[in-house]
Amino acid sequence: MEFIDNLPSMDLMRSEKMTFVQLIIPVESAHRAVSYLGELGLLQFKDLNADKSPFQRTFVNQVKRCGEMSRKIRFFKDQISKAGVSSPSHPSLQPDIELEELEVQLAEHETELIEMNFNSEKLRQSYNELLEFKIVLQKAGGFLDSSKSHTVGEETELSENVHSNNNYSDTASLLEQELQAGPPSHSGVRFVSGIICKSKVLRFERMLFRATRGNMLFNQTPAGEDIMDPISSEWVEKTVFVVFFSGEQARTKILKICEAFGANCYPVPEDMTKQRQISREVLARLSELEATLDAGLRHRNKALSSIGLQLTRWMNLVRREKAVYDTLNMLNFDVTKKCLVGEGWCPIFAKAQIQETLQRATFDSNSQVGIIFHVMDSIESPPTYFRTNCFTSAYQEIVDAYGVASYQEANPAVYTVITFPFLFAVMFGDWGHGICLLLGALVLIAHERKLGSQKLGSFMEMLFGGRYVLLLMSMFSIYCGLIYNEFFSVPFHIFGGSAYKCRDATCSDAYTVGLVKYQDPYPFGVDPSWRGSRSELPFLNSLKMKMSILLGVAQMNLGIILSYFNARFFGSSLDIRHQFVPQMIFLNSLFGYLSLLIVVKWCTGSQADLYHVMIYMFLSPTDDLGENQLFWGQRPLQIILLLSALVAVPWMLFPKPFILRKQHLERFQGRTYGILGTSEADLEVEPDSARQYHEEFNFSEVFVHQMIHSIEFVLGAVSNTASYLRLWALSLAHSELSTVFYEKVLLLAWGYDNIIIRLIGLAVFAFATAFILLMMETLSAFLHALRLHWVEFQNKFYHGDGYKFRPFSFASLIDDED
């Protein structure tokens, strides 16, 4: 035990020792002190104003100002994105700027940009109107020319029809009546010309027809060019229309319908001379507006480019300032209103750094009063903080996803670094597939710096974060694949020749004729001659099933041993005597003994039936084992182990609750009326200080909890051991899938003497290998390995009811979006 106590402590085994500290900061140096602590990132502040709403806190106005500045920066970012102005990846260094000065600059830039946008929108609207007018003049002028030529050609025919038909005035169309009457008059045919969105034309025409009861002529033609909408900045396809009608009432209806459908109406003179004159004026105005718009756009893009140079710096400054004021809102004013009082947690190793940082803040702010930093006691459980690096952080995240470790609790991530990728490889073992995964992991690691500075999608971000997990998974997969002797399901004679050969010359069919052993066993892994033999599946099933049980029992024993180190670390001898010892006895009396039988059977080559041995160990422990006896003294040993397992169950259940009850009664016996504390230390003690805190003892609750824990362990010992058989099942499934794709796809296609069929077979095999074996099977094995660690391993010792250490740090704000 002294040897264990003298071992050096492991950083990742236990969380960092934390201490509860109090800061008393003068008001004039509060902002600088909190800023410096944010740069250090080793102090987690406690919210002393949790009972107040955000609007009741001291620095609410500063937080609002920062929020408003963030809104303006987001507005600039949106405008830069819409304009397509490229921001430099490495902005030029600019001198530091104060928050008040930045606020003024942002307001000026926003006002200027809003004014430019407004002017640009107005100019664009005028330009669009002139462009539409030009198009309407061109298209509607064509309609009017065609109608005039049509009039001259048919005038004679119309007059003859009028004289031969007395009722013509009742049945003639509006256009024909106008033509008969001669020149247009106030009551004759008129027209309205304009332009409308193409998507609305059909509904627009129907509405006009119904409103005028069919007394109108509707002509339309495509505009020929798209027009930009000044509001949405999208190109819209439009159609030019001309509506011929008669009467003032119809004109009023048509104009109202045009307004309702958003159609723009433009006056087109019938005189061709006037049309040409107006067209020339419109074209001149359009060229002027184009020049004005281009100049305005260049000026706006130049302003946005100058903003983009400093946008990142402004964003970081505002984000930092907002974080500082949010943290200051967690502090309380003291009685004199001249100092801010803050409390929080920090690692013990960081105390010197924090004190040095606070002294620097006092000096830089020219404060006459220094910042007081002192350690306090607290009844609260400290946060959990593990110092990780890029290699261990992914494994720590796997453990934390189940639950954050309690303070100073043994950390499963220390062992997960090795056991997790190894159990994955047991299910995934194929050194061909392992090489593929290894290449992917090496690519991610080689581009680590480049990918780390980019924004990745959710899938790629997850893959990049677990690059070192993928690296070890691939390396262990190659190792297990060499043991299974599988390269895309094909065995190879890597470590020498096979130990088996054919019995005679007719032994070519390994499915019907057995092999004989003629030399020493294959030096490493499975002998390649097992491949294709009639006993291949029984042999590999037996091997992998027994191996799964051995690995499972070993890992569960490791979990129970870690519960011993937890109990020893926290000084709980009760847990060692009445929890660790009976659990070890129960698990190893049954499944430890099964593991022993497996190893003995492998070593001796016995034909004993282990199923029969384990079943009759419970049903008939005194019966003779017969041919199933593996070693001398097996039967009495089985009886002793069975009795030990039966004794271990009440040992786990009963002693601990009664001993806790006895200790509680002894601790508080005769203390119903305690002596009043009158010392100054008792009077001045604070609510969150080191005053000893005792929870109320409830015997029934403790007993029920212990009973649930005992039943869970006993049943879990059986179910968890069976759960490790998933190692065998998934390994078998992976191997069989690889074999099917190899034999039924690749070899089948290669049997044809056709290059196209071979290429198709190769493509199907590559697709199946990449997407089914390398993606789906990898995910499946990953999830099963995750379950084995979370449930079967960690439930033996891991409580996982702590909370993470989240210090105030500017580094954690980098990826946050306001």
UniProtKB/TrEMBL annotation:
GO terms for biological process: vacuolar acidification. The keyword Repressor does not apply. The chain crosses the membrane at residues 422-445, 466-484, 547-565, 585-602, 637-654, 755-776. It is found in: Membrane. One of its GO terms (molecular function) is proton-transporting ATPase activity, rotational mechanism. Keywords: Hydrogen ion transport, Ion transport, Membrane, Transmembrane, Transmembrane helix, Transport. Pfam families: V_ATPase_I. GO terms for cellular component: vacuolar proton-transporting V-type ATPase, V0 domain. It comes from the Eukaryota. It is a multi-pass membrane protein. The keyword RNA-binding does not apply. Essential component of the vacuolar proton pump (V-ATPase), a multimeric enzyme that catalyzes the translocation of protons across the membranes. Required for assembly and activity of the V-ATPase. Belongs to the V-ATPase 116 kDa subunit family. This is V-type proton ATPase subunit a. It comes from Dillenia turbinata.
